[in-house]
Amino acid sequence: MSESFLEKGKDISLGYAAMVVFLVFGFVLGGAILFGGNIETMFILALIFTVPLVMKLGYTYKEVQDFGWKVVMQSLEANFIILIVGTMVAALIASGTVPLIIVIGLKLISPKAFLLTALLVTSFTSLATGTSWGTIGTAGLAMIGIGNALGVPPAMTAGAVISGAAFGDKMSPLSDTTNLAAAVTGTPLMTHVKHMTLTTIPAYIMTAILFTFLGFKFDATGYDPTIVNNTVTALSGIFNFSFIELLPLAVVIFLLIKKAPPIMALLSGTASGLILAFFRQGETIHSLLGYIYDGYSIQSGITYIDKLLNRGGIMSMISSFLIVFSAAAITGMLSESGILNALVRPLANNCEGSRFKTVLYTLIMGYSTNMIASSMLLSEIVPGTIMKPIFKKNNLAPQNLSRLLEDSGTLGAWLIPWNANAIFGATMLGVSVGSFIPFVFLAWLSPLTSLIYGATGLTMIPLDKYEEKNAA
């Protein structure tokens, strides 16, 4: 973090930088939207002209290649987590963990309270573990199953699940994004978390109210207990249930709380799930290895049960893996060469002397980086590095910046259809990105609260008072 983002690469004209970024991401989005190409395919094809355009600035092919590999390596752990989550989902279904949660939920949750309950359950899970992806792949997957059985529109359920998962990812001291935002801005971790409550809690309360309202409104149109009873009966006939089936999920949560490496925690969940599936559900080793690769598979004769259970596995996550991998390579070429720097520098310089512009432009940079880089982590690093000296010059304490990085980075990632987070959510929950985005209320409301604070000055801590307090 010592090297300023504005010092990276060569001095490049704004026009050339804009042209390169427009061509690269216009090609990706155009191919995906107009011709139905897979986003990962379009990113890989975009390398054909990204490399020459960067080399035109005077870099060698080896230098351009190194630019891409640098960011690819930085995202490698997160990319492996994508694949491991796929294995864990398959294992948790085969073990009976996810089906048991669904059965418990169906017995306890009414349609009126379901959306609010889905929000609260995923919030607690994510807050305890610090991972939105792990939450979506476990508790979120169960909530989708319960919602489908209750007849709740999947897009609404996905919105509640993602809002809850994103809340915990943003507020948990265990979260990588929480720690990153604090580190980039030089803010003490708990100071950062405490300052975020001033925007996140009001936004969360409004989110809870909206889901409560939607739950009451939806309940008037049709809850069919027959579907619920049939689902409980079918799942109970397929799996052996006792509270021991919750052990794999407990293992993952415990290890993450103890700050074990996420990869090891998720692999431990996978391993414990496989052990339970072998001893409790009667699965063979051959079948379990197949589930890990291709996902859990069953032909129950009930279409919606098969649709609910047949998921997970390494291959189900390959698309997300390739998107993150290829997007990271292109982002590295653009950022390390100075192209991204030239594009955003004027935006950074223009907000000097204005508190509201400082807040607004930080949010814009976060969303823009999320759109360009398809990376939640880069969307905190890039604007955080650029805006840090401007916050200092405008007498704004660093926790103001770290809070904004989470609003546009951690939360904004779920609102970008091609972002790795949104794609993961859609893949895992079986709901299209476009359908759930309007219902991720927390991601819309939290930055709106920050804009209001930026305009009024509420909760915006001055730098001199912050330094004076710390000095004392």
TrEMBL record:
One MF term in the entry's GO annotations: antiporter activity
A Pfam family this chain is assigned to: Na_H_antiporter
Main subcellular localisation: membrane
Keywords annotated in UniProt: Antiport, Cell membrane, Membrane, Transmembrane, Transmembrane helix, Transport
This protein's record includes keyword Transmembrane helix: yes
Superkingdom field: Bacteria
Membrane-related topology note: Multi-pass membrane protein
Domain Na+/H+ antiporter NhaC-like C-terminal: 164-458
InterPro entries: Na/H_antiport_NhaC, Na/H_Antiport_NhaC-like_C, NhaC_Na-H+_Antiporter
Entry's localization field: Cell membrane
Annotated transmembrane regions: 12-35, 42-61, 81-106, 113-133, 139-162, 198-218, 238-256, 263-279, 314-335, 422-445
GO CC terms, sorted: plasma membrane
Sequence similarity: Belongs to the NhaC Na(+)/H(+) (TC 2.A.35) antiporter family.
PANTHER family: MALATE-2H(+)/NA(+)-LACTATE ANTIPORTER, MALATE-2H(+)_NA(+)-LACTATE ANTIPORTER
Protein name as catalogued: Na+/H+ antiporter NhaC
Organism (species): Helicovermis profundi
Lineage summary: Bacteria, Bacillati, Bacillota, Clostridia, Helicovermis
